[in-house]
């Protein structure tokens, strides 16, 4: 498969359609001298300078001018104050001139951390600042071609034609002289027999890129290698004693070929999916229309809700005002009546004089006849004065409303919009006996209050009559992950999550399903004391990762390798054994691994491996090696005190003799060579049923059983791994968590 063959079948995209890829994310203009940041995003050189410093008088210090020997240094116009102010507000505020990390009139500032406008991550440039960045010549050329396509009607003129003759249209551009020439001027300035005749020339252009790319750390060295760790070109000095001394590098030609093939394949894939993209665009158009309609419907419903609220409040207001008015009128009538009564007392003040005249009566019979009625009247007036009470209370306390709760409810109504739903991150979520579910929150600038995770157990088989369980909700989660405990083994669970902000809940995230392992998780770390080969195996400090590498032992065995022998497997086991029950563990094998064997082994077999060494180096020796050799079928035995399955070079190998041992429900009963080789899963799971004497191998992401067989469980069984050549095995965090905590 060659990129050139692929390119022939591609439909070329018009250059005018790629303008959005040629716009700087900061200045929103076409790239000018773009630099490649460590995160692989490109930014104009002048924009990086504006982010780093606010000096107007610094000269043009092109980040990769050091990789352009002989190129003229030009000066960049000072950026406008408006743009500088915008950059400072948008993230460049850390570069304030008042900051102690800056030196005035310094080309390289002390603090060289800038926020990438593409991914928003902080980029640390080091002490050399922008001089450590490569210039993106490829992007620069594409921008130049875009400019030329945009001004195709305007020809490039000769830079050397002298007046009074008008300048002629240029036919060539010299990459060394960095000038364009017509035919006559080119011959005059590049005569045969002179050094200039050896100059490199191309068609008319205004983009004079350097002929070679130079290393920014070693300015006189060309880059000729590619660092796979840092993903950037390096020179041989960087590899020998520089910052890339211990990194894996490859030749530039190999990196060019691999990356070009990958890019060509990706382009071919995108073009082959053109119909799918058009369908998705149509679906998005439908969603846009539905969004518009649903938004208008929600707007009408909101107006209706508030109108009902206003009507209810208006009714309550009218009723309350009517009650207050009735109470006020009643009280006024009572008080006015009492005033009239007392007014009458003032008007009857002649009663006292009349009584005094009655007292002058000397006839006893006449006095008694008149005084009896008069005494009753005077006694009534006296009693009224002694016990004075207003006929009504002037206070209206019973009509004072406490609306604090209602006001709080109204304030809690969020009109800022429903938060967007989070998305469950499948790459970080893991499900065993317990589930660690991680999600990515929406990019909404308004923070959410909390999240709620819901989960339920799904029926794997409809024949058992078990329906999907009801949704269960976890406690409020104030973060981006949570742990769900007590999950049933060998079960399918669905999970979903939603966010809450100001009592407003987002829609649920799309449901994701996870299959729990067939047995409880077995926790262990790698054992560095039992048969561990420190010469050829490198164990991480946490003992959760082991790597096989060629070292001095490989060099010492070079003569044996030359005569046809093989390098032996280096075994390593877990530090915990199994003597009963069912147990499950999972791990990852790096895709670049040459050969890794995984499975179980008994303590008796381990003694044979570690204390009675033999020539186990040949791949044909191990009857379960997975290599396509006929010898392994002849002496294959179903019951062994060990089982090892082979993985390597991105593949998983099913042994030939598995046809009689794989369960009838498995689809891998065929012994055809093509069906014995499977793609290596991202994560591999192993389940050992000690009591039944059976071991199972799973794709740990889907819990699909890939291979199973009988194993003789005698004594203590250990997780076992064998590595040959370059390779690496990582234990899953959930498997190592309890042991690391202990």
What's the structural blueprint in terms of helices and strands?
Layout (H helix, E strand, L loop, with lengths): L2 H6 L25 E3 L5 E3 H8 L28 H9 L23 E3 L6 E3 L9 E2 L1 H14 L21 E3 L4 E3 L1 H7 L11 E2 L22 E3 L4 E3 L1 H6 L7 E3 H21 L1 H74 L2 H10 L4 H23 L17 H9 L10 E2 L5 E2 L3 E6 L9 E9 L13 E2 L7 E4 L7 E10 L2 E2 L6 E4 L21 E3 L5 E4 L3 H5 L1 H5 L7 E4 L8 E8 L5 E8 H9 L19 H4 L7 E7 L2 E3 L19 H4 E3 L4 E6 L4 E6 L4 E7 L6 E8 L2 E5 L1 H9 L1
Antiparallel strand pairs: 1-2, 1-5, 3-4, 6-7, 6-8, 9-10, 9-11, 12-14, 13-14, 14-17, 15-16, 15-18, 18-19, 18-20, 21-22, 22-33, 23-32, 24-29, 24-33, 25-26, 25-32, 26-27, 27-28, 29-30, 30-31
Helix pairs in contact: 9-10
Description:
It contains 17 helices and 33 strands. Strands 21-22-33-24-29-30-31 form a seven-stranded antiparallel beta sheet. The chain has a six-stranded antiparallel beta sheet with strand order 23-32-25-26-27-28. Strands 15, 16, 18, 19 and 20 form a five-stranded antiparallel beta sheet that branches. Helices cover 30% and strands 19% of the residues. Mean pLDDT is 75; it is low at 1-11, 54-111, 462-466, 614-639 and 659-671. The protein is flat. The protein is α+β, with helices and mostly antiparallel strands and 742 residues long. α9 (350-359) packs antiparallel against α10. β1 (34-36) and β2 form a beta hairpin.
